C-alpha cells in the first residue's frame, strides 16, 4: 500500500478518514458566562464583538468558507482575522506572514501553541479555521461546519443591516441534507481521492465525486444558486471546492475525469459566484497552489508547483442570472 499523507487518518483499506474536530465550543448570546468570562458548563462562550480572532489560511477550503461567511454577514469588525502561511512545516501552520513571525494579537508563532494552551495533551493534526479567544489564548472551536452556521445564527445581532440570510429557517431541512451530500462526496471527496492509498479506495471516491458533481450540474441547470435565486451556505461550501478544482484537485488529487472548465453549468455557476462581492476577492490562487503542491510530500515529493492553469477566464461573462 502507498504511503499515506496523514497516516493517522488512513483506514486499513487505504481510504482517507478525516479526523474529528477536537474543539467544539460555541460563541452565543445564550451563554450564561459574564462578559470577559470563559465558557459556561455547556461550553458556550459569551458573544462579544472584537473578542475572538478567526485564524485562516488562504489555501484551505474549510477556512476559506469561514472568511466568506464572515465577510458576507458584515462581521469583519466584530471578528478579527489572522492569516497563516500556506506552507506548513513539521510544527504545522505558521504565522510567518506577520512581522517577526508572530500573530500580532495572539503573540504566537504557530497555531499549535493555541491548541496546546487549550489541551496540553493534544496530538492530532492542527487545522484551520480556528476561532481563538484573545482574552485567554484558547481555541474556542475548530468545528468548521458549525462555525459558519453559528456566524449566521448566533452572531445575528452583530450582522450588517443588509446581511443576507445564508441559513434560512424554512430551508434548513433541505439545506442540511444537501450540504451533507456536498461535504461527503465533493468537499471531502476530493481529499478521499487525493489521500487514498489503495486503488480501490481511490476508484470509489473518484466515481462518487463525479456522480455528485453531475447531479449538482443537473440541479443548477434551471436555478441560479443551489437553493434557487438566493445565495445560501450551501453555495459557499461548494464554491470553495470548485475554485480549487482545476488549480489543485484535477492534477494533484487525480480528480481528472473533467476539469471544472469542461463542466459548462458548474463552470458558469462558479464564475457567477467568483464575480459576486465577498467571493472572488478572497481567492488567492498562488497560496492555493503553493500549499497543495509544496506540503503534501507523499503525493508530490518533488515539491514542484505548476505554473498553470491560465486563470484569466474566471472574470469572463458567466451568462447566469
From TrEMBL:
<dbReference type="InterPro" id="IPR010987">
    <property type="entry name" value="Glutathione-S-Trfase_C-like"/>
</dbReference>
<dbReference type="InterPro" id="IPR047047">
    <property type="entry name" value="GST_Omega-like_C"/>
</dbReference>
<dbReference type="GO" id="GO:0005737">
    <property type="term" value="C:cytoplasm"/>
</dbReference>
<feature type="site" description="Lowers pKa of active site Cys">
    <location>
        <position position="249"/>
    </location>
</feature>
<dbReference type="InterPro" id="IPR004045">
    <property type="entry name" value="Glutathione_S-Trfase_N"/>
</dbReference>
<feature type="active site" description="Nucleophile">
    <location>
        <position position="60"/>
    </location>
</feature>
<feature type="site" description="Lowers pKa of active site Cys">
    <location>
        <position position="292"/>
    </location>
</feature>
<dbReference type="Pfam" id="PF13410">
    <property type="entry name" value="GST_C_2"/>
</dbReference>
<dbReference type="InterPro" id="IPR036282">
    <property type="entry name" value="Glutathione-S-Trfase_C_sf"/>
</dbReference>
<dbReference type="Pfam" id="PF13409">
    <property type="entry name" value="GST_N_2"/>
</dbReference>
<dbReference type="InterPro" id="IPR040079">
    <property type="entry name" value="Glutathione_S-Trfase"/>
</dbReference>
<feature type="region of interest" description="Disordered">
    <location>
        <begin position="1"/>
        <end position="45"/>
    </location>
</feature>
<dbReference type="InterPro" id="IPR016639">
    <property type="entry name" value="GST_Omega/GSH"/>
</dbReference>
<dbReference type="GO" id="GO:0004364">
    <property type="term" value="F:glutathione transferase activity"/>
</dbReference>
<feature type="active site" description="Proton donor/acceptor">
    <location>
        <position position="191"/>
    </location>
</feature>
<feature type="binding site">
    <location>
        <begin position="125"/>
        <end position="128"/>
    </location>
    <ligand>
        <name>glutathione</name>
    </ligand>
</feature>
<feature type="binding site">
    <location>
        <position position="93"/>
    </location>
    <ligand>
        <name>glutathione</name>
    </ligand>
</feature>
<protein>
    <submittedName>
        <fullName>Glutathione-dependent reductase</fullName>
    </submittedName>
</protein>
<dbReference type="InterPro" id="IPR036249">
    <property type="entry name" value="Thioredoxin-like_sf"/>
</dbReference>
<feature type="compositionally biased region" description="Polar residues">
    <location>
        <begin position="1"/>
        <end position="13"/>
    </location>
</feature>
Amino acid at each position: 500500500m502507498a504511503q499515506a499523507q496523514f497516516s493517522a487518518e488512513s483506514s486499513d483499506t487505504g481510504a482517507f478518514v478525516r479526523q474529528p474536530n477536537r474543539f467544539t465550543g460555541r460563541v452565543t448570546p445564550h451563554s450564561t458566562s459574564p462578559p470577559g468570562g470563559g465558557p459556561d458548563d455547556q461550553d458556550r462562550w459569551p458573544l462579544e464583538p472584537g473578542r475572538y480572532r478567526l485564524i485562516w489560511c488562504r489555501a484551505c477550503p474549510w477556512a476559506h468558507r469561514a472568511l466568506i461567511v464572515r465577510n458576507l454577514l458584515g462581521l469583519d469588525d466584530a471578528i478579527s482575522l489572522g492569516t497563516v502561511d500556506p506552507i506548513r512545516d513539521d510544527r504545522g501552520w505558521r504565522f510567518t506572514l506577520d512581522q517577526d513571525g508572530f500573530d500580532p494579537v495572539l503573540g504566537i508563532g504557530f497555531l499549535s501553541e493555541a491548541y496546546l494552551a487549550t489541551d496540553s495533551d493534544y496530538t492530532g493534526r492542527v487545522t484551520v479555521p480556528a476561532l481563538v479567544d484573545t482574552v485567554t489564548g484558547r481555541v474556542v472551536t475548530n468545528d468548521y461546519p458549525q462555525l459558519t452556521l453559528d456566524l449566521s445564527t448566533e452572531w445575528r445581532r452583530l450582522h450588517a443591516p443588509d446581511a443576507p440570510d445564508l441559513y434560512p429557517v424554512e430551508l434548513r431541512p433541505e439545506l442540511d441534507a444537501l450540504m451533507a451530500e456536498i461535504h461527503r462526496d465533493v468537499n471531502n471527496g476530493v481529499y478521499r481521492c487525493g489521500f487514498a492509498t489503495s486503488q480501490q479506495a481511490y476508484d470509489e471516491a473518484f466515481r462518487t465525486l463525479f456522480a455528485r458533481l453531475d447531479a449538482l450540474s443537473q440541479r443548477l441547470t434551471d436555478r441560479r444558486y443551489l437553493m434557487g435565486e438566493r445565495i445560501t451556505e450551501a453555495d459557499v461550501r461548494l464554491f470553495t471546492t470548485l475554485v480549487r478544482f482545476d488549480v489543485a484537485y484535477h492534477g494533484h488529487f487525480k480528480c481528472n475525469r473533467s476539469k471544472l472548465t469542461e463542466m459548462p453549468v458548474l463552470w458558469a455557476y462558479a464564475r457567477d459566484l467568483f464575480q459576486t462581492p465577498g467571493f472572488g476577492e478572497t481567492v488567492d490562487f498562488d497560496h492555493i497552489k503553493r500549499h497543495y503542491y509544496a506540503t503534501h510530500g507523499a503525493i508530490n515529493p518533488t515539491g514542484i508547483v505548476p505554473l498553470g492553469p491560465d486563470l484569466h477566464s474566471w472574470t469572463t461573462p458567466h451568462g447566469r442570472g
